[in-house]
Amino acid sequence: MLTLDLAKPGSKVRIVNIDGKGWVQRLYQMGLLPGSIAEVVANYGVGPIVLRVMGSEVALGRGIARRIVVEEVKEG
Amino acid sequence: MKQITVAIAGQPNVGKSTLFNLLTGSRVLVANWPGVTVEKHEGFTEYKGYRIRFVDLPGVYGLSALTLEERISRSYILSGEADVLVALVDSTIPERTLYLPVQILEMFKKVVIVFTKYDLAHKLGLHVNLQHLEKRLGVPVVAVSARSGLGVSFLLDKIIEVAEHGGRGDYLRVDYGELEPFINSIESKLSGCGALAGYPLRWLSVRLLEGDAELARVVSEKCGSKIYEEVEEIRGEAKRVVGSDLAAVASSKRFAFITSITSESIVRLRLQQPTRSGSIFYHPLVGPALSILIVLSIFILAFIINTGFPLNVILSALGYRELAEEVEALSLSNLMSTSLGWLQELARSHIANPVLASFISDGVIGGVASILIFLPLIFMVMLILSIVEDTGLLPRMAVGVSTLTSRIGLSGNALFPITISMGCNVPGVFGARASLSSGERLRQILTLPLIPCQARLIVLLALATALKTLGGWLLVFLGYLTAFASFAVLNYIFYKLSREKEPVPEMLLEIPALHRPLGRVVWWMTWNNVKHFIAKAGTIIFASSIIIWALVSLTPGLTYTEDASASIAASLSRFLAPAVYPFQITGGKAWIIVFGLLMGLIAKEVFISSVITVSGSPSFTDAISSIGLSDPQIVAVGVFITLYMPCLATISAIYSETRSLKLTLLSIVLSITVAYAASTAIYYLILVL
Ligand SMILES: Nc1nc2c(ncn2[C@@H]2O[C@H](COP(=O)(O)OP(=O)(O)OP(=O)(O)O)[C@@H](O)[C@H]2O)c(=O)[nH]1
Q1: Structural domain includes residue B471
Q2: What is the 3-state secondary structure (H, E, C) of B115-134?
Q3: Looking at chain B from residue 39 to 68, which residues have their Cβ under 8 Å from any Cβ of chain A?
Q4: How far is the CA of B17 from the centre of ligand 1 (A)?
Q5: Average pLDDT in chain B
Q6: Is position B385 within any domain?
Q7: Given B217, B236, B267, which residue is the final one in a domain?
Q8: Is a pLDDT exceeding 80 seen at residue B540?
Q9: What mean pLDDT comes out for the span B394-402?
Q10: Which residue of A has its CA nearest to B273?
Q11: Which atom of ligand 1 is nearest the CA belonging to B515?
Q12: Each residue of A2-50: pLDDT tens digit?
């Protein structure tokens, strides 16, 4: 388990937990909620992280990403 | 004729504006939602003997009252004003975008579901069994394409059918699993409250369980705090039993419901994901560089077409003098001012009465001219903005520069209006629409006028020629430096002040796929914004030009004069002469600078010609030296002019964008304060050095 800001680009992750108020509901509405699977499109260590979830790309600030706990999903 | 009111709801980027325009044509009314600065679009169409009124609800991801837009949409749906709700689904990402329609079906019965961009679905190998979806959702499901026009009249038929014969008999029931017992006990508590009759009670119960503060307030107001406390108790119990965020559980149940119906009705023939290009913009170095490059070339192209600058300067520096003059002569603003000058001359020579002639040529034609001068530029900027937006390039560029702009509380989207403002603040203020939140948009509108436009560059260059010992580059450099510094500092301060109120201070942005722009969409976006400018800003600019004509052409005794230094404006300037005392510009001719500043409100470059006229000098340099300005004073005046107040056109743009007199005044007071602070500081700094 790791926080999303540390996830490798190109990897697939399953969201375990999101810690926050208010804006977490926006994530839920975009399909980012505990249990859902997302692909890390871009993460350069600085600047926003881009995820692909339910077919669309979403850019997240690093502060938000730090509060999302994920686990890596191995492709099978 | 029978009237039907139809509200259109959908998530951002689903194609809502496109469909709205397709349904209503150009007959659109723009107003504000009651009490807020979010725009409300309404349009009409007549079909089979019905007059159908469409109301475009703000694009929202859900109905949680998370943002102003969500609150507006939700209370509109609950108000019952709409006979039918059209809920949109993006055919290319149906699972994600069905979330909003499902929420709507939980609280509203007369719904038509529309799959937009259906032409793209085929390209992606996506097949949707519309009949099956209709069966599962209990309402008509229609596929449309704005590209081909497919499905539009079928949609209108369905709207009439639902309006006449009703939609579902009851609200949609999503299975909320472990939350069900708690939903049921909240619902039975609420059903005892008569004041809630007509409310979708199950929906209300789910929302209360999820912790909706606004609905909790409604319930305690309508039913008393006792019921509210009981609801809170059930919620506490649910949290203990379920053990995780109730809103997350509810959302995942809605998505589970969606998957259960789409897995039966949507088939993907090609399994591979559509290739996504444009990821290059996410790189922390390439992204900003590429974004700034794109914006800069757009900006330069627009200005070459409009004024010839900077191509003319480059050409004449290379020795192609004639070619440079040709470019300048063919620029839009030059063509425009030549033909308007010709019209003014015509009016002057054909009207015998000198007062009337001056009124028509300087007041009326001059007023129209100051609107028209901005038009080509605004049109071009809006066109480019629409294309950049419609291809999906804008959000990518926003991601690219966001690391830089986030330091002063702006999203990456600010890149565009800032750059545009360097040409002209008027379209810049309009460009603030691309910002992510209404708070940020407001901060941009208030601070963008500090960005030096081309007119101010012209004044700075003219003042530079009047300097005796200081280098001209220093003046231009200081002007731009103080302007950008004040822009950054003010934004930072505003951002800090507003921080608590912003729900999402960080980036949280959906990035739609890159695609070829739809000509129709681009045209609508451009034309709507240009129309907006003509209608709103245009009238203000025109009226003020007439007033200014009167101030410059009438003496305090209200007789006509051709000598501007005997006019009301000149008396006013003498009275206001202390305005330039902070730069120790006193003397009997100090008022000339004030007069220039006043006239500069029409457009900043008018400062130059008006100072020349009233001082009776042959050139600007002579005029400045006849007033007796020292080098530090010239620099101070230059910095002051750059910042002191948005020009009339910008002020009217600010007003028409905020629709608030208070905010417009605030922006004026703000820029005057900043101008005095910055220019006196620089004045004394140069004196000391
Ligand atoms: N191919 C295709 N593209 C479409 C269609 N309808 C809309 N689009 C594109 O989808 C994108 C989004 O359309 P908009 O109408 O701006 O979407 P919106 O829901 O109003 O989004 P916001 O303006 O962000 O609220 C645009 O780039 C359109 O060009 C369609 O029927 N076919």
Answers
A1: no
A2: EECHHHHHHCCEEECHHHHH
A3: 61-62, 64, 66
A4: 7
A5: 87
A6: yes
A7: B267
A8: no
A9: 83
A10: A55
A11: 27
A12: 999 999 999 999 999 998 877 788 899 999 999 999 999 999 988 889 9
Q: Are B609 and B458 in contact (CB under 8 A)?
A: no
**Whole-number CA gyration radius for chain A:** 11
Q: Which carries the bigger pLDDT value, residue B247 or residue B436?
A: B247
Write the pLDDT tens digit of every residue in B446-484: 999 999 887 788 788 888 888 888 877 888 889 999 999
Same domain, yes or no: B155 and B56: yes
CA of B443 to the centre of ligand 1 (A): 27
Q: B39-47 and A49-53: which strand pairing?
A: unpaired
Residue to mutate (ligand 1; options B60, B520, B521, B529; most atoms within 8 A of CB): B521
Give the closest residue to B307 by CA, choosing from B384, B368, B376: B376
CB environment B482-509: b (16+ within 10 A), e (fewer): bbeebbbebbeebbeebeeebebbbbbb
Q: Is A6 on the interface with B (CB under 8 A)?
A: no
Give domain status of residue B49, yes or no.
yes
Q: Is the model's pLDDT at B116 over the cut of 70?
A: yes
The predicted structure's pLDDT at residue B37: 58
Q: Which residue has the higher pLDDT, B61 or B545?
A: B61
CA B465 to CA B621: how far, in whole Å?
Answer: 7
Kindly list the residues from chain A whose CB atom is less than 8 angstroms away from the CB atom of residue B399.
Answer: 47-48, 50, 59
Nearest by CB to residue B276, choosing from A45, A57, A59, is A57
In angstroms, the separation between the Cα of residue A65 and the nearest Cα of chain B is: 10
Q: Does B661 touch chain A (CB under 8 A)?
A: no
Residues B533 and B556 in one domain: no
Nearest to A59 among B61, B399, B503 (CB): B399
pLDDT single digits (tens) B185-220:
999 999 988 888 888 999 999 999 999 989 999 999
Structurally, chain B folds into a number of domains equal to: 4
Structural domains of chain A sorted by starting position, each given as residue range(s) with its CATH number in brackets: 2-72 (2.30.30.90)
Cβ distance B613 to B564 under 8 Å? yes
Amino acid residing at B493:
I
- The structure tokens 């040709």 sit at B326
C-alpha B145 to ligand 1 mean position (Å): 10
**Residues of B whose CB is below 8 A from A14:** none
Angle, alpha carbons B487-B492-B495 (nearest 5°): 120
Q: B557 and B610 share a domain?
A: yes
Q: Does B99 touch chain A (CB under 8 A)?
A: yes
Domain that holds residue B617: 542-688
Structural domain contains residue B459: no
Ligand 1 pocket residues where CB is under 6 Å: B 10, 12-18, 59, 116-117, 119-120, 145-147, 390, 517-518, 521
- Ligand 1 mutation target, pool B90, B96, B518, most atoms within 8 A of CB: B518
Task: Quote the pLDDT of residue B319.
Answer: 85
Indicate which atom in ligand 1 lies nearest the CA of residue B58: 25
**Any B CB within 8 A of A76 CB:** no
Q: How far apart are CA B475 and CA B466, in angstroms?
A: 11
| Least trusted range by pLDDT, from B413-422, B636-645, B660-669 | B413-422
Pairwise CB contact (< 8 Å): A26 & B508: yes
What is the structure's pLDDT at B501? 57
- CA Rg value for chain B: 30
Mean pLDDT of B637-653: 91
Could you give the CA distance from residue A40 to residue B338 in angstroms, rounded to a whole number?
57
Place B504 in a pLDDT band, splitting at 50, 70 and 90: very low
User: Which of B211, B206, B215, B194 is closest to B105 using CA atoms?
Assistant: B206
Tell me how close the Cα of A49 comes to any Cα of chain B, in angstroms. 8
Q: Is B493 on the interface with A (CB under 8 A)?
A: no
Are B446 and B317 found together in one domain? yes
Residue B500 scores a pLDDT above 60: no
